[in-house]
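BUG-419 | component: ligand-complex export | severity: low

The export step for pyridoxal-5'-phosphate jobs runs without errors, but we want the raw record kept on the ticket for reference. Input record follows.
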Amino acid sequence: MPDFRQDADAQAILESDAERLLPVYARYPVVMDHGNGVYLYDTTGNRYLDLMAGLGVNALGHAHPRMVAAMAEQAAKLIHLSPQYASRYPGELAERLCDLSGMKGVFYSTGGSEAVEGALKLARTHARQNYTHPKHEIVALKKSYHGRTYGSLSVTGQDKYRLDFGPGLPHVKFVERNDLEQLRSAVSGATAAILVEPLLGEGGVHNLDPAFIAEARKLADAYGALLIFDEIQSGLGRTGDWFAFTRSGVQPDALILGKPLGGGIPLSALLVNEMLFDAFGVAKHGSTLGGSPMACRLGLEFLNIVEDDDLLSQVKDTGAYLLGHLHQLAKESPLGIEARGRGLLLGLEIAEPGRPIAEAALEHGVMLNVVQGNVLRFLPSFLLQRKHVDVAVDLMHGLLKTRRGEVHEGLEAAVPVTA
Ligand SMILES: Cc1ncc(COP(=O)(O)O)c(C=O)c1O
């Protein structure tokens, strides 16, 4: 078991951070130094099995040699370029993304929220260009998570994130996931877009029923609304398929990607179908830092590595193995409620706040992530293997064995941490 306490230097970093960085994140008391594969190392040299992978960004783990080499080579050539000029990689990456997803074109931005903003603008401008009646509404899901900027926050179906900052974007309706009746009554001629995560992540890891997705497609077609999939968290291989929507057989009008896309360099993408290719037109939308040569080069290398090393199969295999263990934990542990998810986007709902469990796991060298207060969410790198799962599961069996109300007395109650 690594020594959780670090030296005075680490302590000084934590203290000075607390003085200067806005206390927006419920941070864990550890100062990381470097990473290698599925492990992170703190400044004292303690090793941690990373099961959250930078909230899903570090899909190839840390310091992947091919990513490091691509980054070094590209840094010496061209890091950033005005998007008004062409370079080699943005187009190559767009072609690959379109081939994989069946979409026609790509607009790049930086973070996920920014790409969601683009999708909302696209829905509004498409409605304005094609319909004369008011068509502003966005239908989204309760418990969804789409980001922190005003538009993306306004379509996030969780009051706890939204209400302090209101009023947000008007004309947003929220429906329960998988409730066909609610969906049918929410969508009308006034709907500009239906926006869903095919596999909800931050909301607690919940699958959308294929029938619900199919109904969304049918309603979007019937009323001339766009169907938009936010796969910022579930996309790009995380479910063991390139996209979570693939299995539904339903094609969206727009698809939003982010997180691992730039290999850790901010990069998000809004992919659109043929109909929407020219919807923005020239100079109506943009992003100074979006789609830099560096980020796109890393995006291509990321896709190449996933393909070359058959990581989708590994995600499927390790994911199924971990999910099997989580089902067992849900059944056997006095704290277990339910295990769910797909590939390496998995959740274990427990009957107590998850934060003390995550803190205890960290002391034992395993980094867990908590959403919704009581869901342990697993978003590890695609490099995770069964042997790593065994280590984590053994530890969780111990931590979750504790009777209700007795988990690490003295630690603070759960603080919901997000995204
Ligand atoms: C599904 C989904 N959409 C949007 C976002 C927002 O992305 P970002 O934090 O990069 O702005 C996230 C982040 O977790 C997400 O999971």
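Assignee comment: Attached the raw record above. The radius of gyration is 21 Å.
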